[in-house]
């Protein structure tokens, strides 16, 4: 941490140490395996005995069943992310705030989809996570709008408004927000890369992680497109900025033979864990299993990077991601149990 004052260095060390403490409180694999054999009420009780207790207790008089779990998880995640923003100092706060703006995209797209489908505002609100620039008050204002067009107009002045304005007509015409969402994420990652390169202390380390995340997202998208038999030009669906160029991703996408496609990916990968994961994927057909496998190896790579740079943005990002996946796992368990899915099937959706 050359060039960082002793006081700020101490704050960096404190913040990164606190992240490791928080990681130790995350739900371990063995508890997920136990929950696979529980009913929804049992899962709710179990979650109410963990770090989600205050939300379960507070909301228990207003919600029950799956709704209680959904809202409690969203509230807890938003509260946790906001507390981390208050904790981290200096440039770590800058990078963390930039990274958390992904939740603005997720929340806005969720609201737009809900409005198009005629969902009640209260139902949409249950799954929103006000962890980005748009806080609860801003999201409530968007929920009060009566149409997707009005929602977008209410976002005039936000950084991503031009993309929303341009892409909404196409989304409304096709009934799909997939392209709009992809364009928003392309802008998001372009902004993260710009932040990392603007000369702020720790930017190079931040950039390493961004490239890893872009690569993982693009590889997952390629597998998803192949599962949907989309073999045409996919360049506009890829996110620039990773170690693969968009042209390379297009060439890989054009390989019709699945083994040839996986071999092509492996030729460009240096990470041994990712090479092993790609080989293991060769025998998988279910897209959710492929995506989970790639997410697991991404988290493992993040963990190794954070050990190399223990007092940087990376321990914070590792915790943000692991907390996000904890909430996603609990949400998948609750929804799966409500739908009557067997535990062995649900296990394939969990990132453990």
Keywords:
single chain, about 0% strand, about 350 residues, mainly alpha
How far apart lie the N and C ends? 32 Å
Beta-strand percentage range: under 5%
Overall form: globular
Helix-strand sequence: HHHHHHHHHHHHHHHHHHH
The whole-number mean of residue pLDDT values reads: 93
Question: How helix-rich are the residues, as a percent range?
Answer: over 70%
Q: Low-confidence stretches at least 5 residues in length (pLDDT < 50)?
A: none
Backbone structural class: mainly alpha
Give a count of the beta strands, DSSP E runs of length 2 or more: 0
From the alpha-carbon coordinates, what is the Rg to the nearest angstrom?
21 Å
Count of DSSP-assigned helices:
19
Largest sheet: none
What can you see in these coordinates?
This protein has 19 helices and no strands. The chain has helices at residues 6-24, 29-35, 40-47, 53-59, 65-87, 90-100, 102-116, 121-125, 136-144, 148-154, 161-174, 178-196, 203-227, 246-253, 258-267, 272-281, 287-308, 314-338, 343-347. 71% of the residues lie in helices and 0% in strands. The protein is globular, with a radius of gyration of 21 Å. Helix 3 packs parallel to helix 5 (65-87) and helix 5 runs antiparallel to helix 6. The protein is an all-alpha fold.
């Amino acid at each position: 941490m050359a060039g960082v004052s002793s006081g700020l260095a101490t704050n960096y060390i404190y913040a990164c140490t606190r992240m490791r403490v928080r990681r130790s409180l995350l739900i371990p694999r063995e508890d997920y395996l136990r929950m696979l054999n529980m009913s929804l009420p049992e899962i709710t009780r179990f979650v109410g005995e963990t770090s989600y207790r205050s939300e379960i207790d507070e909301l228990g008089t207003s919600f029950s069943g799956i709704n209680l779990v959904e809202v409690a998880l969203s509230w807890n995640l938003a509260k946790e992310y906001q507390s981390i923003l208050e904790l981290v100092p200096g440039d770590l706060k800058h990078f963390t705030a930039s990274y958390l703006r992904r939740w603005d995209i997720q929340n806005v797209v969720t609201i737009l989809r809900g409005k198009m489908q005629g969902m009640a505002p209260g139902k949409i609100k249950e799954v929103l996570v006000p962890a980005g620039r748009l806080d609860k008050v801003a999201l409530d204002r968007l929920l009060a709008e009566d149409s997707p067009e009005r929602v977008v107009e209410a976002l005039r002045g936000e950084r991503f408004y031009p993309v929303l304005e341009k892409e909404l007509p196409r989304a409304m015409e096709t009934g799909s927000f997939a392209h709009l969402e992809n364009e928003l994420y392309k802008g998001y990652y372009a902004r993260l890369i710009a932040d990392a390169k603007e000369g702020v202390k720790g930017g190079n380390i931040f950039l390493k992680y961004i490239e890893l995340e872009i690569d993982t997202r693009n590889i997952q998208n390629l597998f998803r497109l192949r599962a949907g038999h989309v073999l045409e030009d996919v360049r506009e669906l890829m996110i620039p900025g990773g170690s693969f160029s968009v042209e390379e991703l297009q060439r890989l996408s054009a390989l019709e033979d699945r083994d040839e496609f996986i071999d092509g990916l492996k030729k460009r990968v240096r990470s041994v864990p990712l090479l092993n994961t790609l080989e293991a994927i060769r025998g998988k057909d279910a897209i959710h299993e492929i995506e989970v496998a790639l997410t697991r190896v991404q988290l493992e790579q993040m963990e190794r990077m954070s050990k190399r740079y223990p007092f940087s943005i990376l321990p914070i990002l590792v915790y943000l991601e692991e907390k996000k996946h904890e909430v996603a796992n609990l949400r998948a368990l609750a929804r799966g149990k409500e739908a009557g899915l067997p535990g062995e099937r649900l296990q394939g959706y969990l990132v453990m």
